[in-house]
C-alpha cells in the first residue's frame, strides 16, 4: 500500500463523502475524523507529499453504515489506479451499486458513516487443509480472500470484530463465496492482506 501520512484519514474519508455527494446531489459538511491504531506510526505530510501518496496506485474498500448497521461495502483487492480515484469510485459504488441494498438517497447521506480501508498487496496463504488454514490465521489482523473456480469472497480484518473464532470466520467466508456449509477442497486458493482503516467520528 502507499505510505500513508497522519492526515490520511481525514483526506480519504472526505474524498469518499464528496464523491458520493456529487453523484447523488447531496450537500456535505466537514466531519471530525479518526483513524485506526494501525495507522498511528504514520508521519505528517506536506501538500506535495499528499499529492504523491494519493496519486500512487492503491487498493481500497469503502464501508457505509447507518446506526451501526451495514449500508454498503465495495472495494478493490488489487491496486490498479491512483488511490484517490479508487476511493472515490468505490465510495460511489458502495452507495449506489451494492446489490444487497437499494441506492442511497441524498436524504440519508448525513446519517451515513464512512470507513475507508487501504489494503496491502494480497499474499498467497498456502495450507494443507481447512484446520491448518484456521490455525494460522491472525484474528483482528488478516483479511482473507478465498477463490475456487468461479467462486470468490473476501472478509476485511474488521470482520473479526463479529467473527472472532477462526473456524467461524472461514465458515462464513466459504458461505459468502456461495459454497455449501462445511465445504473444503484441496484446490482452494487463499490469500491474506492487512489494512489501514480510517473512519469518520
Task: Provide an overview of this structure.
The protein is α+β, with helices and mostly antiparallel strands and 201 residues long. The chain folds into two domains: 8-120, 2-Layer Sandwich (Glycoprotein, Type 4 Pilin); 123-194, Hypothetical protein ph0010, domain 2 (Dna Ligase, domain 1, 2-Layer Sandwich). Helices cover 29% and strands 24% of the residues. The strands form two sheets. It has a five-stranded antiparallel beta sheet with strand order 1-9-4-2-3, with helices on one face. The protein has a four-stranded antiparallel beta sheet with strand order 5-8-6-7, covered by helices on one side. It starts with 7 loop residues before the first helix and ends with a strand. 33% of the residues are buried. The model is unreliable at 30-46 (pLDDT under 50).
Specify Rg, calculated over alpha carbons: 17 Å
Tell me the count of domains.
2
- Structural class comes to alpha+beta
Oligomer: single chain
Number of helices: 5
Instruction: Give the topology string: H per helix, E per strand.
Output: HEHEEHEEHEEHEE
The dominant shape is globular
Low-confidence stretches: 30-46
Distance between the termini: 24 Å
CATH class of the largest domain: Alpha Beta
Please provide the count of β strands: 9
By CATH, the superfamily of the largest domain comes out as: Hypothetical protein ph0010, domain 1
Instruction: Quote the beta fraction.
Output: 15-25%
Mean pLDDT: 90
Could you give a short account of the major beta sheet?
5 strands, antiparallel
Name the helicity range: 25-40%
Order of neighbouring strands in the sheet with most strands: 1-9-4-2-3
Amino acid at each position: 500500500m502507499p505510505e500513508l501520512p497522519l492526515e490520511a484519514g481525514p483526506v480519504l474519508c472526505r474524498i469518499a463523502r464528496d464523491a458520493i455527494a456529487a453523484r447523488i446531489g447531496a450537500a456535505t459538511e466537514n466531519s471530525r475524523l479518526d483513524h485506526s491504531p494501525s495507522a498511528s506510526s504514520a508521519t505528517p505530510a506536506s501538500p506535495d507529499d499528499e499529492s504523491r501518496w494519493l496519486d500512487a496506485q492503491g487498493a481500497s474498500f469503502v464501508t457505509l453504515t447507518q446506526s451501526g448497521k451495514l449500508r454498503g461495502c465495495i472495494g478493490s483487492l488489487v491496486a490498479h489506479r491512483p488511490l484517490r480515484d479508487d476511493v472515490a469510485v468505490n465510495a460511489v459504488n458502495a452507495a449506489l451499486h451494492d446489490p444487497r441494498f437499494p441506492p442511497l438517497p441524498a436524504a440519508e447521506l448525513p446519517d451515513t458513516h464512512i470507513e475507508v480501508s487501504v489494503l496491502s498487496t494480497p499474499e498467497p496463504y498456502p495450507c494443507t487443509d481447512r484446520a491448518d488454514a484456521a490455525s494460522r490465521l491472525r484474528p483482528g489482523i488478516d483479511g482473507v480472500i478465498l477463490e475456487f473456480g468461479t467462486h470468490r469472497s473476501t472478509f476485511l480484518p474488521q470482520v473479526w470484530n463479529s467473527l472472532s473464532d477462526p473456524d467461524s470466520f472461514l465458515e462464513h467466508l466459504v458461505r459468502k463465496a456461495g459454497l455449501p456449509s462445511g465445504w473444503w477442497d484441496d484446490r482452494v486458493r487463499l490469500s491474506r492482506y492487512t489494512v489501514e482503516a480510517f473512519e469518520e467520528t
